[in-house]
Amino acid sequence: MKFFIEAIGCQQNGYDASRLAIFLKSAGLFESSAEESDIIFILACSVRQTAVDRIFGRIRNWNAKSPSGKKTSHQIIVTSCLTPDDQKKIIERGVSYWEFGDIESLEKIIGEKFNNRTIEQSSDSVYIPIMIGCNNFCSYCIVPYTRGRERSRPADEVILEASELIKSGKKQIILLGQNVNSYEFGFTKLLKDLDDLPGDFVISFISNHPKDMTADVIEAIVTLSKVKKEIHLPLQSGSDRILKLMNRPYSSKQYLELIENCKSKIENLLVTTDIIVGFPGETEEDFQQTVDICKKVEFSLAYVNKYSPRKGTVAYSLGDPISWVEKQQRWKILNHLVNKKL
Question: Of 324, 273, 328, 277, which is closest to residue 295 (Cα–Cα)?
């Protein structure tokens, strides 16, 4: 039996996709192209409407008839981050929705028995989720509704997983969370405990929230030898007016002061960020304020996203007044400025 996996969205889905592939291979399945596979897995992201539209587009294309007129025979399984409403739409299209990690449920869906009951991962660089969910309720984001409120994994569980991965030869441990700074059991303590583990490896983490990037986290980056000197600190917008509409509780001035503080203490610091262009009501002046911050900070990388309205979020009521052409133009400007790409 052959399988194909497509991960849409965040690093969590990339992490889960690598684990799922290894699990399926260990069970005797073979990884192949989408066209040749018996089973297609889609690890879904429902943060932006464009990502959901992409999922439905993939399903439509993969369910289309072949040039010979024969209907494709593969089975499509969607998993990961979807709202209940989108799960219902998926099922209405004759596609299975699977709760990721539920092996018994997967066996029923595909009619295959697995000896292994857990889904592992592999590669020199590995992700370790330390928490799921989010408490911030940014107006554009559906995560608190799809993944729920913040839930942190016990520290000893995270440390044990990291220790085993390091012993198996992993060289980079990447801690994952929607907001790692609010890790329930003490984020800086977790960093120190991981830093104390024996082995040749480095530690990094994503994502941070500007409101929770405290002095002790900065100090940990400075003093812990295995922690990479880099920070992923989402900006989202350089306009205070737009930040307020996004429910991001900091100002552009506070963000810049935080960056300056980090750079003054952490030598050769690399800063990456997330930015949304075309948020409802974003004027040319608002956008230029984002451009100005990008010039001041000199991010090493920016993930620039074009806003798309997401039903179920607060921002959905604001509509989508900015044209796709304008969003694309703003995206190009920032992508070229920060990422040096046209």
Answer: 273
pLDDT at 113: 85
Sheet strands (E) in 130-194? 131-132, 151-152, 172-176
- CA–CA separation, 286 and 280 (whole Å): 11
Tokens of 300: 């090493």
CATH 3.40.50.12160 assigned to domain 2-110? The reply is: yes
CB atoms within 10 A of CB 129: 19
* Residues contacting residue 76 through CB under 8 Å, at least 6 positions apart: 39, 40, 42, 59, 62, 63, 95, 96
Q: What is the pLDDT of residue 63?
A: 77
- Do you find a cis peptide bond into 207, omega within 30 degrees of 0? yes
Is-same-fold flag (2-110; 233-342)? no
What fold does the segment set 123-228 form as a domain? Transcription Regulator spoIIAA (3.30.750)
Burial class (CB in 10 A: 0-12, 13-18, 19+), 183: buried
Q: CA of 2: how far to CAs of 29, 41, 77, in Å?
A: 6, 11, 13
Cβ atoms of residues 302 and 294 within 8 Å: yes
CB under 8 A, 24+ apart: contacts of 284-290: 285/239, 286/237, 286/238, 286/239, 286/241, 286/242, 287/239, 287/330, 289/237, 289/238, 289/239, 289/252, 290/235, 290/237, 290/238, 290/239, 290/334
- Host H or E run for residue 80: strand 75-80
As a CATH number, domain 233-342 is 3.30.750.200
Predicted TM-score (pTM) above 0.70: yes
The pLDDT tens digits for 276-302 are 999 999 999 999 999 999 999 999 999
